[in-house]
Amino acid sequence: MTDIIIRDYQEEDRGNLKAFELSEKQQVYSSLPMDVLDDALKDPYRTPCVVQNEDQEIVGFFVLHKYYQHEGYDTPHEVVYIRSLSINEKLQGRGYGTKVAMALPQYVQGKYEALDHLYLVVDAENQAAWSLYERAGFMHTATKEDGPIGKERLYYLDLDQKYVHNVKLKLDESAVLPKVRIEIILNKKEKVGYIEGEVDKEVLRITHLYTELEERNRGIASTALRQFGTFLRRNMPEIRDLIVHMDDAAEKIRLFERVGFVKFDEDENSKLYKKYINY
Question: What domain of life does the native source organism fall in (predicted)?
Answer without folding.
Answer: Bacteria
